[in-house]
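Chapter review: from sequence to fold.
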Amino acid sequence: MKPVKKIFIITLCILLLSPAMAASAASYTVKSNDTLYSLGKLFNTSVKSLQYSNNFDENSLSPGDKIYVPAHVYKVKSGDSLHKIATKYEIPLSNLKKANGKKADSIKPGQKLMIPGVKPNKKSDTVISYSGNDVDLLAKLIEAEAAGESMKAKIAVGAVVINRIQSKDWAPTISKVINQKFGEYYQFTPVKIGTIHNTPSSASKKAAWIAMYGSDPSNGAIFYFDQSSKNKWLWSKPIKAQIDHMVYVK
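The C-alpha cell string follows.
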C-alpha cells in the first residue's frame, strides 16, 4: 500500500462516556414524530446532551436522520425473545421495540439490539479489543488532528483508526496503527512532530469512545486529510465523506 507523507486534520465533540454514550448499534434512525425530547426520554438522556452529541443547534429532527444515542448493545442468543430481553434489562417492551424500529416480535440469534436507557459496557460493546492506554492514545490523536472541527469530524478521525485495525492491510492494535510507519513515512503527522503526546481534551476522549463503540461518520474511510491538501494521490482515492474542512477516503 502506498505510504502517505502527511495526513492533516482538526476537531470538536462529545457523547459516549458522560451524559450520552454511543455504541455500534446505537446509531438511531429518526422516525416520524420523533423529537429530541421524546428520544431523550427513551434513551434516558437530556435534550442538551443529544444536541451536543449530534451537533444540533435546534430542537428539530427529520425522518431518516441518524443520531448517536446512549444504549447498551445486546447480541441475541438462541431462545431469546423481545419480552425476555426487556424483562432482563427491566425496561418496557415498547421501548425496546421503538429503539430498534421493530413492529413485530421476531428476532434471531446473532442479531444486535440496542437496549435504551442502559449505558454501554466498555469492554463488551466496543467494536475492537483494547488494552492499557489505547483509548487515551486514540484521544490524543483526535486532539492533535482534529481540534477545532465538529463532533462528527472528530469521531470520524477515530473511526479511521478503527477501520484500519479491522482491515487486514494495517496493524492490529490502536497503538500499532497510530505509530505505524512505511519506510521513512509516518502515517500520522502528530507522531512525527510530537503533538501526539499532548493532553487530550474531555471532548476528544469522548470522541475516542464514540469511535470505539462503532460510530463511523467516515463511512469506512482509511485515510483523512484537510481539504486544502495538494496530495494528488489522496485526492485520487474514493471519497467516502466530507465533513467540515476534512475529507475521508478509502
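Two observations follow directly from the output. The two ends are 12 Å apart (CA to CA). Residues 134-249 form a domain with the Arc Repressor Mutant, subunit A fold (CATH 1.10.10.2520).
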